[in-house]
Give the backbone structure.
Amino acid sequence: MFTVSVRDHFMIAHSFEGQVFGPAQKLHGATYVVDAEFRRAELDPDGIVVDIGRATEALSAVLAALNFRNLDDEPAFKGRNTTTEFLASVIHERIATKIAAGELGSHAHGLASLRVTLHESHVAWAAYEGKLGR
Amino acid sequence: MFTVSVRDHFMIAHSFEGQVFGPAQKLHGATYVVDAEFRRAELDPDGIVVDIGRATEALSAVLAALNFRNLDDEPAFKGRNTTTEFLASVIHERIATKIAAGELGSHAHGLASLRVTLHESHVAWAAYEGKLGR
Amino acid sequence: MFTVSVRDHFMIAHSFEGQVFGPAQKLHGATYVVDAEFRRAELDPDGIVVDIGRATEALSAVLAALNFRNLDDEPAFKGRNTTTEFLASVIHERIATKIAAGELGSHAHGLASLRVTLHESHVAWAAYEGKLGR
Amino acid sequence: MFTVSVRDHFMIAHSFEGQVFGPAQKLHGATYVVDAEFRRAELDPDGIVVDIGRATEALSAVLAALNFRNLDDEPAFKGRNTTTEFLASVIHERIATKIAAGELGSHAHGLASLRVTLHESHVAWAAYEGKLGR
Amino acid sequence: MFTVSVRDHFMIAHSFEGQVFGPAQKLHGATYVVDAEFRRAELDPDGIVVDIGRATEALSAVLAALNFRNLDDEPAFKGRNTTTEFLASVIHERIATKIAAGELGSHAHGLASLRVTLHESHVAWAAYEGKLGR
Amino acid sequence: MFTVSVRDHFMIAHSFEGQVFGPAQKLHGATYVVDAEFRRAELDPDGIVVDIGRATEALSAVLAALNFRNLDDEPAFKGRNTTTEFLASVIHERIATKIAAGELGSHAHGLASLRVTLHESHVAWAAYEGKLGR
């Protein structure tokens, strides 16, 4: 299996509902440093996993739609706790949509899976990985 | 698959038996920076992989029982080389026991597997991963 | 010159006033990974720069008073932009106050200066350094 | 599953052919920081995944054969784009050959798989993983 | 003293002349991860060291003029070894020129000094720092 | 000012005397990842701060004399607590001696100062810096 990974970040405010979250029930915020790992069984005709320029742009575009926001105000997350692991799955889904729409190039349809990792500090991070494809 | 990871560390002395260990047969020591990665297929009812506060405490408690020790004197490791990879499996087993005992909350029974990584320097690390569950 | 550094983090929400801040004028947030570097010319009678346990506790206590907050609501920062560099100076001042109050031990009066660095992402950080002492 | 990882690096010049590579079609270069992760189901009779000294030497020897070169001039890569993901597979194959030849010790025949990761910057990396064995 | 730092990178080919460089006399290459640390005694009227957006753009523009090049072919470096420490001073000078030209905003004239660090691998880096200003 | 830095590591056992050290009074150990930063005002005739190959060897040789030891048994440290900050000064002195003896080349006599940093974990490190030369 081959992989290519790119890194970017975004900065948001949010709060959580539920006793399990303790002091994080108050409005606070986070920087998320995000790694997107693209995977496939064999290299494409250009000898690559994915066009790294387009992969970087796709990640950047997905994060731009979240960056500098209060996630408590986002209709898309109504009634959901925007935990690190949940946000990883949201970003996974949005990049997968771009791949399906051809935004990462036609060869990107050969990508097998994607892992999205969000680092929230030097001592905590979360990830979601799932298959890609038609 | 969803994951949540937390990081902590411990500092020990030990020595190894066997020619393969070269100069590490002498009493020396190490700082181990430890990552515990908790995994499950779906988020729990709180929208999380695991209560990160309890996961951090569990890791910290397991490492406290090893920290500031000479592992050569520990009855639990009698006759064993406390290599980095072996210690990863020990920490895995001890966290798994805490999960089974309910110390990470009742939803933690839904955790599928755990990966424990020990970084021994900027150029070497080892890990053990295995399933969790009843 | 000798130094000892310890690291911790905090997570906050805030917004900025002023065109120079662009999209950061909206309510957003950040994780700040904080390094406190304590400096002195000569080691103290125990052969150390500072009691690292107390230094870690002091940093942790200062960050706990900021953690999981919306800094826009904090009276202490009324009318101020809580930029990364400004927050570095605030944390510097609060640790310096603890040192002056003897909370880091009597030998800590021999500390010459302190540098506080706040990492806001993998590509941006800010610091404040200044003298300590009577 | 147990793993042991070691890190080293090499520095090369190269260029790429194909529009997808944009400005990287010009002669440029890279530092690759390389992680080799060795995996096996159970520890060997010495209680280890692999002799870390020999693993480090094997990685170092493989990288020495690439270091300080212009890869465009290497016969082994004639007609191939030496992308990060392709180089990861090359290094995988060369370490696998050393394992098969017994250079990592006789117990190394029990290794199940190998993952080779090449970090090309703080925001991009690529990997190849594949099975080992007879 | 206050500082703000930003990070970016560039990838080049080059070779060195002189026996002291050993195998690096051959054409090879490097990724340089570059940190630019901007320093001033007091914050500017916006409560910042420098407009971080403009600082990031300035660093990016300076690196773009070096990125994806063979430095042996650059007229600017004719007869010079483009060592890591020398390149740090070149980037320092080019950012200083942009500050003097007002590209980082009018308040940037209050910057006191600049440190430019180039990381060439996980085990080696070099820096140049010097005063700024009229 | 120009700097060049190189990194290596060593692994030791030791214990401390004095109530201030708490549980670290027991025999334990540490991995120290060591950075040696060489500084000078102007580049030498080869356009470098120091021969990085020789600097790396000098650091490696100094650390080899400490590696895989119980520092409590070392005559050189009799009656001293081998704290991180103290060890930084020891390594500084030993590298300085090598520079004075010409082991880093004749141009190394132009080095102005040296900073030695020991990272003992992901959340703690210490350094010693001092002048070099006649």
Observations:
- The mean pLDDT of chain F is 97.
- Chain F touches chain C at residues 18, 20-22, 80-81, 83-86, 88-89, 122-130 (CB under 8 Å).
- Chain F has two helices and five strands.
